[in-house]
Q: What sequence folds into this?
């Protein structure tokens, strides 16, 4: 297995299959720590990490926070609402000021694509992308892959159907980069305005008919309809969306045996996913949340461990 | 880096006898074997631990559970080593609280691995005692740590390396002293 030689984790696109496997295998070892009575190992003692969230988040932020704490790192949360950003400080100045406080890593979430990359151009600390606009959300795709592997024992050869607002979904984009690298086949499903033909350029299939696409699927990944990004009318009504693209019991019957249901959360219950489907035995949604901590511990460990790491980017 | 083999200090029979002798000592010292658990340190400590457990079963008809400890996350040289060590799983499926824990490793050298292993064990629960068994004690301690059971004391120079091979993973049972070639 190869060592992880990147300084930052900005996206999945630039990772190789073997680097992805290194992260997943490392996460495997961290899973057990969260089941201990003392849920903590001293590995990153003395390291400081800043959670720099310019956009609201509960799951990702607390998952990173717990991951850091279980490795004994100190973590500081920066929230835009209570920061100088509201007084008009620029992004670059905010980051430079935080960096003057000598952190060992910055975890960045921003509503605009490319912000983590921009920060990495002038900042010496490792940057971890926790979601940037509609671009990438690498740790979510990693925890999705980890969960699929855990439930299905392998990723190669699986049919993964991703359904919903593909256009605005960074989760979908990171998964589109990740899963085919490990040998899965992806079919994207959604209303045409939210699923432009250009997505075919990523080497995945697209289908506007959920009934047809879901046949023989091993994994059904439902995305949240992002009502806050919905200023334009991408579909006529919630009711119509639900009729065509919600995951119902009837639709789920067409999947392969032992197929699993995933969702990155938060769910609009009753829109893309009914409550009983979300809480069914096939749903691994809470497993995804649980695995998220182990995967983020692995990422922090691989980026912050070792002093003189040989870094190639 | 090429290695030069300087000496073969133990063969399969010697290793077997040492394990047998130490097992007898363990049984003698731990009257209540039901409270004994074995924790092997990755990688070769696991196989030594399993052999001891099997031997105790033969001698005393008691099943002693064997757990696996990976100490990577507890290393004290974590920020000095060049690349991250691959973390592997710790698999201890029993409670160590109030137990007599027999910690098993192949070679005792600086003592830092054992320090890390003890920290890790104590985070898993509060053992009644921790005892240490090693196949080879090669000296050069940097911490106040000693073995309760040692297969062989082997005075070495710091430049030398001690390699324990076990047939479960190395296809043969032997202990070698090697030295990096081309240094002299």
A:
């Amino acid at each position: 297995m190869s060592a992880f030689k990147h300084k930052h984790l900005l996206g999945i696109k630039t990772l190789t299959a073997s680097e992805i496997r290194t992260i997943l295998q490392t996460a495997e070892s961290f899973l057990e720590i969260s089941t201990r009575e003392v849920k903590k190992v001293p590995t990153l003692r003395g390291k400081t990490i800043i959670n720099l969230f310019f956009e609201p988040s509960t799951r990702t932020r607390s998952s990173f926070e717990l991951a850091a704490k279980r490795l004994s790192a100190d973590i500081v949360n920066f929230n835009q609402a209570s920061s100088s950003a509201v007084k008009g400080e620029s992004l670059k100045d905010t980051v430079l000021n935080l960096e003057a406080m000598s952190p060992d890593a910055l975890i960045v979430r921003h509503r605009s694509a490319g912000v983590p990359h921009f920060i990495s151009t002038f900042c010496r600390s490792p940057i971890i992308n926790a979601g940037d606009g509609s671009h990438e959300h690498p740790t979510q795709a990693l925890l999705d892959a980890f969960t699929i592997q855990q439930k299905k024992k392998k990723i190669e050869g699986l049919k993964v159907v991703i359904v919903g607002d593909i256009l605005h979904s960074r989760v979908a984009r990171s998964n589109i980069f990740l899963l085919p690298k490990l040998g899965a086949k992806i079919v994207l499903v959604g209303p045409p305005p939210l699923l432009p033909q250009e997505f075919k350029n990523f080497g995945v299939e697209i289908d506007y008919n959920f009934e047809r696409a879901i046949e023989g699927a091993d994994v059904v990944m439902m995305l949240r309809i992002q009502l806050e990004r919905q200023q334009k009318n991408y579909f006529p009504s919630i009711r119509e969306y639900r009729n065509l693209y919600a995951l119902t019991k009837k639709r789920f019957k067409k999947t392969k045996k032992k197929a699993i249901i995933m969702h990155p959360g938060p769910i609009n219950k009753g829109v893309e996913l009914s409550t009983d489907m979300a809480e069914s035995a096939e749903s691994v949604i809470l497993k995804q949340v649980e695995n998220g901590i182990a995967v983020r511990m692995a990422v922090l460990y691989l980026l912050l461990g070792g002093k003189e790491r040989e870094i190639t980017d | 880096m090429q290695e030069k083999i300087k000496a073969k200090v133990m063969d399969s029979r010697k290793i077997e006898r040492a394990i047998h002798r130490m097992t007898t000592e363990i049984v003698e010292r731990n009257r209540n074997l039901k409270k004994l658990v074995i924790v092997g340190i990755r990688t070769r400590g696991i196989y030594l631990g399993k052999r001891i457990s099997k031997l105790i079963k033969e001698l005393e008809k008691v099943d002693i559970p064997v757990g696996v400890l990976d100490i990577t996350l507890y290393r004290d040289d974590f920020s000095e080593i060049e690349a991250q060590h691959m973390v592997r799983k710790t698999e201890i499926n029993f409670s160590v609280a109030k137990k007599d824990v027999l910690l098993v490793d192949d070679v005792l050298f600086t003592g830092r691995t054992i320090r890390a292993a003890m920290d890790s064990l104590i985070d898993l629960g509060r053992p009644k005692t921790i005892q240490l068994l090693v196949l080879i004690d090669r000296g050069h301690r940097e911490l106040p740590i000693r073995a309760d059971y040692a297969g062989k004391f082997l005075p070495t120079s710091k430049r030398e390396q001690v390699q324990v091979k076990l047939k479960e993973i190395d296809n043969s049972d032997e202990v070698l002293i090697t030295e990096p070639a081309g240094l002299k």
Notes: Chain A has two domains: 17-136+290-304, 138-285. The mean pLDDT of chain A is 92. Strands of chain A lie at 48-53, 74-79, 105-110, 127-132, 159-163, 185-189, 205-207, 219-222, 260-262. The two ends of chain A are 19 Å apart (CA to CA).
